[in-house]
Every structure is written in C-alpha cells, then in structure tokens.
Amino acid sequence: MAQFYIPNLSENDKVIELNEEESKHSVRVLRLGIGDTLTLLNGKGLSAHGKIVDAHPKKCKVQVDSYNVHAKTKEIHIAVCPTKSIDRIEWFVEKAVELGLTKLTFLLSKNSERTQIKMERLEKIAVAAMKQSKRFYLPEIEWSKDVSSFVSEYQNGFIAHCYPGDKVSSESDNLDNPILIGPEGDFTVEEVEIALKNGYRGLDLGEFRLRTETAALTAVFCLRK
C-alpha cells in the first residue's frame, strides 16, 4: 500500500487533502483513483489508513478509515562530519533512515572539507526513505555544531578515530548514543581529547580504513544491536 507524508496529520482528521506534490504523485505517477486505499503518516509515529474520495491531481482528498499509533524504535543518534561529495552524504542519509536512524547531527571539525548543506534536500531524501522502508518515524536532522559544543551537550558517547589509544570494539554489545564520525582527514587530536574529557570512549570500527559515509553507516548497524 502506498504511503504519503502528511506532517500535520492528527487523529481528529476525517478527510485529508494531500499537498500538491503528494497529490500529483498519487494521481499522476501511481495512477490511483477514487476508492483506492493508501496510508498516511506524519513521521511522528501516527499513521492513517484511508481511501481516495477525490482524485484531483493537485488537491487529492482521502477519507480516513482508521488510525494507528506506533511505538518508537530504538534511539540511534549519529553525529557525522559531512563529506566533500554531497552525493555520499545523501546516500548515507537514505540508507541510515532505512535502517532506523532517529537523529542525525552534522558536525564541523577543523578538518571538515564541507561547511554547508542544503537541509531541505536531505529532508526530502529522509522522507522518501521513511516511506520506502515503511517506517513511521522521521529522524531529526540538525546542523551544525562544532565538536567541542556537541560533546558538551551530549556527553558519554563514542568517537571513532584513527589515533592510537584505548578503544571499544564495534562488536561490543555495550555501545550507546551518540557515535561521532569524523571527516575524511579524521578529527584533530585536540577534538578527540576534548571528547574523551567529556566522557566519550574511543570506538574501533575494524582494521580497515573506511570512508566517512561507510563508517557512519557502520555506526548505525552498531547501535541497532
């Protein structure tokens, strides 16, 4: 059953009008018509099942038959420095949402090669991934904090880095949020030290060197355990 994102969906609604983008997708792309059923979701755990009563390509209307409230999934918070190539970070967002990411923070490291991101574009990718994977929660995406500010606000997480020192294996069952992933050139020594002073522990993602987006996706897997 096709899913459509309605951010202001509430259990008080009986008939819902899709926005122009979702109306066009339902009527023009999916060729849905009057009487066809679909699922609406607000990205906050509420979904509705209903049927189309007006198949207008710009103002499609849906009559709601039932609502469902879905339990929250396990919290997965990744803080990552955006890659120089925007395609790679967009790929990460798509795959991470499919795997259950609940919060994403973009960090600025002194070694960051990208300092700006089109958040609207990433939010659209996240919505599409949520619908495609049939999830009911849209992750929070925030931009941006420097490492020092972030570890002061979110203490006692894990930081993946390539410097020598004590580290916890990515196969450990005792990992917790958030996990920090650095840029292509890694965090600076000073940034790692600041994190450790704020209760963070080093994280070992394996013997091989990973791209930033691969390391970030690996971290999602680690927190799914």
Description:
By secondary structure, the protein is α/β, with parallel strands linked by helices. The chain has two domains: 3-69, Hypothetical PUA domain-like, domain 1 (Ribosomal Protein L25, Chain P, Beta Barrel); 77-224, SPOUT methyltransferase, trefoil knot domain (Alpha/beta knot, 3-Layer(aba) Sandwich), CATH 3.40.1280.10. It has helices at 20-29, 86-98, 119-132, 147-153, 189-197, 212-224, and strands at residues 3-5, 15-17, 37-41, 46-54, 61-69, 77-80, 103-108, 140-146, 158-160, 167-169, 179-181, 201-204. A seven-stranded parallel beta sheet has the order 8-7-6-11-9-12-10, sandwiched between helices. A five-stranded mixed beta sheet has the order 1-3-4-5-2. A hairpin with a 4-residue loop joins strand 3 and strand 4 (46-54). Helix 2 (86-98) runs parallel beside helix 3 (119-132) and helix 2 (86-98) runs parallel beside helix 6. It starts with a strand and ends with a helix. The model has no long low-confidence stretch (mean pLDDT 95).
Query: How would a crystallographer describe the biggest sheet?
Result: 7 strands, parallel
Q: Quickly give the CATH architecture of the largest domain.
A: 3-Layer(aba) Sandwich
Strand content: 25-35%
Portion of residues in helices? 25-40%
The CATH topology of the largest domain is: Alpha/beta knot
What general form does the structure show? elongated
